[in-house]
UniProtKB/TrEMBL annotation:
This is SGNH/GDSL hydrolase family protein. The lineage of its organism: Bacteria, Pseudomonadati, Bacteroidota, Cytophagia, Cytophagales.
Length: 265
C-alpha cells in the first residue's frame, strides 16, 4: 500500500468503490477544504461490494487512527476488476469468495471458469499491470462532458428512506460481512462509512443493495439529505447515466466534506 503510506501520519479519508467513486470524489478539492486530512480516491473501474470489502480489509492495518473509509455499496459480481490484481493475488480472491459468498453462486460451477480467467490474466500481469499503469488508474478521474439526455437513474429520498424489510439469505450474509468489517475497523479507531451510489442504472443493484443499506446502523452510514439530492439530480452534473462529470464531482465532494466534518465533531 505504498499509495497510502507515502505521506505523513495525518488521518486519512479513503474512498473505496467502482468507477462511480473514481468520477465522484475530487480529492484535490477536498484537501483544500479540509487540509487536516489526507484524501485518497481508490475507486476501481468494475469493482463491486466483495472487492471493496477485501481492499478495505487491506487498508485497515496501514491507516492511522481517526481515519475514515467511505465504502460504496454496490452489487455482487464474481470476477474482480482488472486493476485489482495490483492489490491482491488470485488465491486470496478465490478463498475470499468461497468463504464469504456461498450465496447464490455455485462455486463448483464457476471454479473452472474462474481459474481459466486467472491463468490468462496471469500471463499478462507482469507486463500490463505495472505500478505505473496502476497509479494512473488510481485517483480522481475528471470527466468534463455533460449528459444530454434526461437523467433517470438517480436515487431518490424515497429510496433512502424506504422501510426496513426482512433480508434475503444473500442480503443477510452481505450485511453480516459488512458489520464484521465495521467492528474490526473500530478496534483500530478507524471508521467505515457505508453509502450508496447516487446513480444506479441497474434495477438488480437497487433491489440487492437498498435493503442492506436500510438495515445498517445510522452511525456508519452517509445518508444524503433531501436538499442535496434535489440539487445533484440534474443532467448538467452527469457525464453518462452512471457517472458524475467534473461539476457533479465538485458538488458531491463539497457534500462529503460536510459529512466528514460532522463525523469528526
Amino acid at each position: 500500500m505504498k499509495y497510502i503510506n507515502a505521506d505523513d501520519k495525518k488521518p486519512k479519508v479513503v474512498f473505496v468503490g467502482s468507477s462511480r467513486v473514481q468520477a465522484g470524489f475530487n480529492t484535490a478539492l477536498l484537501k483544500r477544504q479540509l487540509p487536516e486530512f489526507n484524501f485518497y480516491n481508490m475507486g476501481l473501474s468494475g469493482s463491486s461490494v466483495l472487492y471493496n470489502y477485501e481492499l478495505t480489509e487491506k487498508l485497515i492495518p496501514v491507516l492511522p487512527a481517526k481515519s475514515t473509509v467511505f465504502f460504496e455499496l454496490s452489487d455482487l459480481t464474481i470476477l474482480p476488476p482488472n486493476h485489482y490484481l495490483y492489490f491482491s493475488n488470485y488465491t486470496d480472491l478465490y478463498n475470499l469468495m468461497k468463504k464469504q459468498v456461498d450465496l447464490s453462486f455455485k462455486f463448483n460451477d464457476i471454479e473452472k471458469v474462474f481459474f481459466s480467467f486467472v491463468n490468462v490474466r496471469s500471463q499478462f500481469k507482469a507486463s500490463v499491470y505495472t505500478e505505473q499503469v496502476i497509479l494512473k488508474e488510481i485517483g480522481f478521474v475528471k470527466k468534463a462532458a455533460a449528459y444530454s439526455d434526461k437523467p433517470k437513474d438517480f436515487i431518490s429520498i424515497n429510496d433512502i428512506n424506504q422501510p426496513q424489510v426482512p433480508l434475503t439469505e444473500l442480503q443477510q450474509k452481505m450485511y453480516t460481512m459488512l458489520i464484521d468489517l465495521m467492528e474490526r475497523a473500530k478496534k483500530q479507531d478507524i471508521k467505515i462509512v457505508y453509502y450508496i451510489a447516487l446513480n444506479m442504472p441497474k434495477t438488480t443493484e437497487r433491489k440487492q443493495i437498498l435493503p442492506i443499506f436500510s438495515a445498517l446502523p445510522a452511525s456508519n452510514k452517509w445518508v444524503y439529505s433531501a436538499d442535496f439530492l434535489t440539487k445533484i439530480t440534474n443532467g448538467k452534473y452527469l457525464y453518462d447515466p452512471g457517472h458524475l462529470n467534473e461539476n457533479g464531482a465538485s458538488v458531491n465532494s463539497m457534500e462529503v466534506a460536510r459529512e466528514i466534518m460532522r463525523i469528526n465533531r
